[in-house]
Amino acid sequence: MKWSGYYKLDWQDRIQYLVENHVIDATQAKLMAENYSAVGDQQVENYLYNFGVPMGLLTDIEINGEHKSVPMATEEPSVIAAANNGARMLNQGDGVHAAFKQRLIRGQVIAINLDDTGAFQHYVQKHTAQLLAVANHAHPSMEARGGGAKDIVIEPLDEKTVAVDVLVDPCEAMGANVVNTMAEAVAQDLRSVGFEILMGILSNYATEALIEANVAIPVAALKTKQGMAGADVAQRVAQASYMEQLTPYRAVTANKGIMNGVEAVVLASGNDTRAVNAGMHAYAAESGQYKGLAQWTVSDDGQFLNGSIKMPLMLGVVGGSIGIVPAVQLNQQIMGNPDAQTLSAIVAGVALAQNLAALRALVSSGIQAGHMALQAKSLALQVGATVAEVPLLVAALEKSEQINQASAQALLANIRKEKR
Ligand code: HMG
């Protein structure tokens, strides 16, 4: 089968080619056609069809004094229930307070084969104003909005290599395209005076866009249905949080749980989940050991569980796919059309909610009770239950001692036998 030039075919012909070559059959081609999106066809290369991710709602989380509803895109059962559960607890205090100290994106311009790195650094220091002007001239609208290139930081890398880092305020955008344009312009300017520049590119390690979120929850809000007192839950959550500072094996799992919520909101808001993910994990290892991003402690008087999280977060509310995908605009509307700072505060709040719900479950009834109960619907579909059979099978699984594929299959067979 020949693939060269496949990308030049139009969508109909791309699908037809797959059918003719027995990669897919006619029914599958129909499924692709049903999920065709003209926007999708413009967004990515070799476009086939839109792969749907279920979208659910976090109904109410209080962020900086405002109650927000937050759409979340995820395929994993129990994530959205947990976010709601966590937010319900966060809202019992005065909600989440989240803010940036600064919000800048970094572009690296890497100079190589320098005979004298000191002389190069001296040149950059002396010409900082000029280099900033070059950067701003490459994308003047950003400066006109009050943003643009604000500073230059010199990052010596080895005895022959120095990165010239341009720090850019991207206003309401995430800034990738802006900063890349600026970094390339600065690279060109440095080349023109004789320096060898390897490349200019943004960094997704957004250490100049660290958001910090805090919450204080009255311990009574944490008590469980099974009868564990709120004060005990609070102590155990704090202990669990401390474990994430001790062992990366626990920290990675806890951060995965945080990313359950973070990625779901980042994706729903039309932002780049990979950029956020890469930056978050690098920051988690900032001290040299990978640690949990969130921390929970009990207040000295034992009355409050205090939570905090600090993470690099560069999100936009304009640019990229945001303006072109109607579902993203719908999601922004549900959140009250937040600006970039508010969207980031929402994401940081969801991170705390998600982590708290998981830790509370882990240190009380265990994760499987809640998670597996909600997994039952997916399990029912996996073993072939029809839409009408799903509620019957879920009810049977909830009563069953085991929730797994074998028990689901056996219970489904029973349901069908009883129906005959
Ligand atoms: P529960 O205590 O049985 O629920 O929790 P409840 O019936 O008492 O409801 C409490 C609230 O939870 C509700 O308030 C809802 O807000 C929400 P209400 O509306 O009644 O006033 N809620 C739901 N929201 C939407 N849909 C639902 C739903 N059920 C409850 N169906 C629950 C049950 C699953 C929420 C709880 O056990 C929980 O939060 N578990 C944590 C689950 C979790 O973290 N899942 C993520 C996947 S596991 C993972 O990937 C991460 C992990 O490894 C991370 C780590 O190790 O740190 C765990």
Automatic annotation (TrEMBL):
It holds the Pfam family HMG-CoA_red. GO terms for molecular function: hydroxymethylglutaryl-CoA reductase (NADH) activity; hydroxymethylglutaryl-CoA reductase (NADPH) activity. Keywords: NAD, Oxidoreductase. Pathway: Metabolic intermediate metabolism; (R)-mevalonate degradation; (S)-3-hydroxy-3-methylglutaryl-CoA from (R)-mevalonate: step 1/1. Gene3D superfamilies: 1.10.8.660, 3-hydroxy-3-methylglutaryl-coenzyme A Reductase, Chain A, domain 2. InterPro entries: HMG_CoA_Rdtase, HMG_CoA_Rdtase_bac-typ, HMG_CoA_Rdtase_cat_sf, HMG_CoA_Rdtase_NAD(P)-bd_sf, HMG_CoA_Rdtase_sub-bd_dom_sf. The keyword Mitochondrion does not apply. SUPFAM superfamilies: NAD-binding domain of HMG-CoA reductase (SSF55035), Substrate-binding domain of HMG-CoA reductase (SSF56542). One of its GO terms (biological process) is coenzyme A metabolic process. The keyword Oxidoreductase applies. It catalyses: (R)-mevalonate + 2 NAD(+) + CoA = (3S)-3-hydroxy-3-methylglutaryl-CoA + 2 NADH + 2 H(+). It is an enzyme of class 1 (oxidoreductase). Its EC number is 1.1.1.88. Transmembrane segments: none annotated. Belongs to the HMG-CoA reductase family. This is 3-hydroxy-3-methylglutaryl coenzyme A reductase. It comes from Weissella viridescens. The lineage of its organism: Bacteria, Bacillati, Bacillota, Bacilli, Lactobacillales.
